[in-house]
Amino acid sequence: MRRIAASLAAVLALLLALAAGGCGDDGAEPDAPDSGAQPAAGPDQLDLVLDFQPNAVHTGIYAAQQDGLFADHGVDVEIQAPGASTDAPKLLRSGRADLAILDIHDLAIAREQGIDLVGVAAIVQRPLAAVIAADREQVKTPADLAGKHVGVTGLPSDDAVLESVLEAGGLDLGDVEKTTIGFEAVPSLLAGKLDAATAFWNAEGVTLAGKLPTREFRVDDFGAPPYPELVLTTTPEKLDADADGIAATVAAIGEGYDEVVADPEAGLDALTAAVPELDRESQRAQLEAVLPAFGDTRAFDPAVLREWAKWDAEHGIVEQPPDIGKTFDFSIAGATAGVGDSSG
User: Fold this and answer.
1) Do the Cβ atoms of 318 and 235 come closer than 8 Å?
2) Is the pTM of this model over 0.90?
3) How many helices (DSSP H) and strands (DSSP E) are in the chain?
4) Which of 4, 178, 196, 298 has the most beta carbons within 10 angstroms of its beta carbon?
5) What CATH topology corresponds to 44-125+227-327?
6) What is the pLDDT of residues 302-317, one digit of tens each?
7) Alpha-carbon 129 to chain mean position
8) 3-state DSSP call for residue 209?
9) Per residue in 16-53, pLDDT tens?
């Protein structure tokens, strides 16, 4: 039985070899196998961690996913919402994420702490931080914040935002009653526990404006440069190893935001299809507010970044101005002006 099985196996192997070689009746020799042939490569796979739970500011990313823009550029991007304890810089450095959206101040702080990260594209082109007063009649100018009870999250950037707004009114931090409230600006202001709080005007500001007669002091209207609040970030190692994949991802995201600017409702469709638990009406209000901040490019403005670096250091977010030539890579999304001197 073993001999018969071996003979059958030999015949089968011969037939398969002849078929693979394409032998015909003309007796031509089969072509030699191409030992160098490689299987077709699949799309470049990258994990992207958001800065916060999905919301209107992320519509361009979800539009890129829904409309197949990532696939068109040869990448497969998995969008991940951050967990309660997610530390994006550590996820990047450990290789558990390829890209992450960071607040620009968090990028500066991470680098000062020795975590080597680099920004590759701007998600928005202006600050989203503001001081929001609950009663626009009582607080009409920053000077009217004197003696008021103001809440901050406890992040270093919050003190900087509050300080910058107060300085515009001839005040300093000692002129207000400052309380650390974490991320409770909305309930604290609605409950009348505070007169004002630092918050993002595109999210908490929109929610509060629908319930209270608020007044917003957006930080770039009161001393801060128009820095890009949210930055797409990676590691230098990942950038060196997969510059093409990251460039393709940035290009697709840029096209996604272009689509959202041209058709905001389509952007909402993409967002709510991916995250159906979101309330469409509240996200529409947030998108209407933040739409102008998207701008028309994901590129960085080196001149603005130099001013931002100085502002962060002057307001105590970091000890020294970040070196923008090391903090940002201008080869992926480009620069809106000459890079010139890259130092902070």
Assistant:
1) no
2) no
3) 14, 10
4) 196
5) D-Maltodextrin-Binding Protein; domain 2 (3.40.190)
6) 999 999 999 999 999 9
7) 15
8) helix
9) 333 333 333 444 333 444 444 444 556 789 999 999 99
